[in-house]
Design a protein that fits this description.
The protein is built from two helices and no strands. It is mainly α. The chain has a domain at 19-53. The longest helix has 22 residues, at 22-43. The radius of gyration is 14 Å and the shape is elongated. The relative contact order is 0.14. The mean pLDDT is 96.
């Protein structure tokens, strides 16, 4: 399952080409960010992720 919308990323990068390894790497980064945010929220005894958890 992809965590990012490929079409939106393509809109952002415009005329740049996107390598085949870019989207899997981006998905891993997003997953890492989310995992860290969940851990931080748990440490603060919350079940709501907030911007400050990023």
């Amino acid at each position: 399952m992809s965590l990012v919308a490929r079409s939106r990323i393509k809109e952002i990068v415009g005329d740049f080409n996107i390598g085949s390894d870019f989207f899997p790497a981006l998905d891993r980064e997003v997953e890492n960010i989310i995992t860290k945010a969940v851990m931080r929220a748990k440490e603060n005894k919350r079940r709501t992720l907030m911007a400050r958890d990023i």
